[in-house]
Amino acid sequence: MNVKKHVVVIGAGFGGLQAVKKLSKNKDVMITLIDRNNHHLFQPLLYQVATAVLSPADIGIPIRSITDRLKNVTVLMDEVTKIDKSRNIVYLNKKELSYDYLIIATGARTGYFGHSDWKNYSPGLKNIYDALRIRNRLLISFEEAENHPERSEELLKYIIIGGGPTGVELAGSIAELSHSIINNDFRNIDTRKAKIILIEGGSDLLPSFDRKLSVYTKKRLEKRGVEVMLNTRVMNIENKKVFIKNPYGEKEISGELIIWAAGVEAAPLNANSGFNVDRQKRVVVNEFCSLNEYPDVYVIGDASDFKTKDGKPLPGVSAVAMQQGRYVAASIIRKIKGKSTEPFRYVNKGNMATIGRKDAVAEFPGISFTGFFAWLLWLFVHLFYQVGFKNKISILITWIWSYFTFGASARLIQNPDDM
Length: 419
Prior knowledge:
This protein is 31% helix and 25% strand.
């Protein structure tokens, strides 16, 4: 009798889902997929939820809906509390599971470079709760300014820390919301006077992109009314205050909403599990995306520290997680069949970031685009990789409606007293 191998996958993000889908095609394995949430989240579009363009249901889909036809996949909504690698056991809140192979794809959370107290004053953007909290505070600031127009200058001031894709997209989207979408909705204030400040510690925005695209992005954001501060370090954050230092000296700037988009760290893994982690709490893995001492334990995506041949870590983007997810699934299948496995090789398919309506930057090996064509590419890619046909159609309809009407339909304030 052929005994099926049990594969446990922790995390239903991009990497985890790719691994599950590929593994499920092999009937010699049983798969248990564990996640703290009941939904898969399309994180690249979280900023559109935060700025009232999309609703949470547009970028989230129940995990069980994705796996309902995969009969060898069991989904558990639970939290992993400990991993015993020597005994091949995963401990959950109320039960434990044994495994033959383990894939850890727990993703990342907002990282504050050791200043955990800053999260009390500057929310990040890594999940639905973060996006809704930012959206509520953003929309409430406009309502408060309408009620107290004499304070509109201070109430309509927003600071975004971090000039990577998330920071750039948030800055452009908030500028578009205040300057073009809701500017006719209020009577006592002019929302076009809202001030958006984008702070970046390095010398360029989008530091992982070609510099000409970074320069283009800065110019286009400034044309949209965003104040860009480069070579500016954040020294401290307090309630509605940011203390910065740049070549011109040190100063304090205030803002009604301060958003942290400057750093991430791996989602926490229980210290008792004994993982070797780097400074960002990512698990150090070998060229096979596994642990040297435990080759049947794989760590992928934002949870892993995978070094390329030149010693550089792979970027924390969905493309890496998806490729690693498919790779480890294929590796496990090969192991079951008694075959050898080649080391993982990442294929860079390019970078993209949207600046705003009809404007984006796109970089592919050997070629790059800016402006309207890059924006169309961005739209296509994000629709293509969205999980679920219903979500694709919903997002497409919303984008078309927003394009022709300059509308943002998700402007609902929920539980403002809790935000």
